[in-house]
Amino acid sequence: MYKHNINLFPTQTNKNFESEELIPKNIMSIGANKKWDQGYTGNGIVIAILDSGCDTKNLNLAANIIDGYNFTEEHNGDTSNFEDLNGHGTHVAGIIAASKYKKGTVGVAPNAKLLILKVLDEFGKGSVETVVTALNYATKWRGPYGEKVRVISLSLGTRNPNEDMYTAIKEAVEEDIPVVVASGNDGDGNINTDEYRYPGAYDEVIEVGAVDDDNNIAPFTNTNRFVDIYAPGVDINSTFLDNEFAVLSGTSMAAPHVAGAIAIIIEEYEEKYDIPLREHDIYRLLRNNTDLIKADEKNNINVLSLK
Q1: Per-residue pLDDT tens over the stretch 187-234
Q2: What backbone torsions phi and psi does residue 92 show, to the nearest 5 degrees?
Q3: Is the overall model pTM greater than 0.85, yes or no?
Q4: Better pLDDT: 19 or 197
Q5: Which CATH number do you get for residue 289?
Q6: Residue 202, helix vs strand vs coil
Q7: Displacement of CA 279 from its chain's centroid (Å)
Q8: How many domains does the chain have?
Q9: Mind telling me the catalytic residues?
């Protein structure tokens, strides 16, 4: 029995989908393909994904997986086996960094590197304690050539705050690692009412809500004063288990768009100015890469749009 439960956010599955469209509409809508044309693909930027693992044999993902660790009891507790038995983590990974292949889809930052940290089981269940351990692991992780994690992506949450999780997030941010978190799928379709999930509702994270193709707030997305940015989260085609593809909806799909965009932003601006970006610099640049969209008579929202 988990002491403090944490779950992936349930997604709406529309259909399995074998795509011939190499650049999905959601990738084009945020302007990622324009950044690729300028030479920015997130090359070498390491993104840690805390989720249900990843299909390491996926043809669109295998080349971009730099390392991983299994924090669950699945696979007999083999820490080196971080295979995904759910599909959620593989879908998230594809949104971030699916590479261009003969068929299928492509992610926001197709040359980024993925650190796969398996914290959820085949049912999408896990513990806050495990997530805390994985957050600390991501912050301290070093790659074979001294690489460091530059972004952490979490498409999961719990209803109650947790001090240890909050401390781990603040320590990551202090190391200049932005922590990108889905806001949750408890929304009622009204931007003026608040729905909270943690760690999304911590001010230190970059909380992401979901919009549809027309930049309307998705009816399921949590809204609250801590949501920093909105990104595509409705009918998102991405990688799935067994080299298949799936179309899913949820804030779980919105957050990885932002994580991938941050990888592109880091690559671009560190190349231009030849200085490491601090977390607050990354946040400022991310906000500069948004469009201000009218949500209703009273509210505007910032929607991801790479410039």
Answers
A1: 999 999 999 999 999 999 999 999 999 999 999 999 999 999 999 999
A2: -60, -45
A3: yes
A4: 197
A5: 3.40.50.200
A6: coil
A7: 17
A8: 1
A9: 51, 88, 252
Which residue type sits at 265?
I
Strand runs (DSSP E) across 92-147, as ranges?
Answer: 113-118, 125-127
Q: What is the pLDDT of residue 3?
A: 45
Residue 51's SS3 state is strand
For residue 239, the one-letter residue type is: T
Question: Which helix (H) or strand (E) segment is 171 a member of?
Answer: helix 163-174
Q: What is the mean pLDDT of the chain?
A: 94
Contact present, 124 and 158 (Cβ < 8 Å): no
Per residue in 70-104, pLDDT (tens digit) is 999 999 999 999 999 999 999 999 999 999 766 67
Q: Which helix (H) or strand (E) holds 301?
A: strand 300-304
Domain containing residue 36: 5-304
Contact 210, 220 (CB under 8 A): yes
Can the peptide bond before residue 199 be classed as cis, meaning omega within 30 degrees of 0? Answer: yes
Distance of alpha carbon 210 from alpha carbon 122, whole angstroms:
24
Three-state DSSP state, 229: strand
Rounded CA-CA distance 246/235 in Å is 9
Whether the Cβ atoms of residue 120 and residue 88 lie closer than 8 Å to each other: yes
- And the tokens for 123? 């049912």
pLDDT in tens, 289-307: 999 999 999 999 999 999 9
